[in-house]
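REVIEWER CHECKLIST
Item 1: Sequence provided? yes
Item 2: Single chain? yes
Item 3: Sequence as submitted:
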Amino acid sequence: MKVKDLLTDESKWTKGAYSRDAEGETTDLLDRGAVCWCLRGAIDLCYNGDERGVIRSKVRMYINGEIEPWNDSFTTTFQDVKKLVNELDI
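Item 4: Structure as written out by the authors:
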């Protein structure tokens, strides 16, 4: 699965935590109760090993910075995240 397959709509995306459950509480990425993920959490869930590192590097180059602060920024929107994952095809 790719990040773009996981973050299909805004309800599946979050800020301030790698993943959250339906009540909005922070949860483990692999928890079956997780219903939304930040960009970094989605990358970590969808990719593993060396591929995860490659994807993270591509994203950092695309945003010219670190993933978590960019995702959690007041100005970053779900549309920004969707554009990124579609353009990078991740």
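Item 5: Key structural point noted by reviewer: The first strand starts at residue 19 and ends at 21.
Item 6: Recommendation: ____
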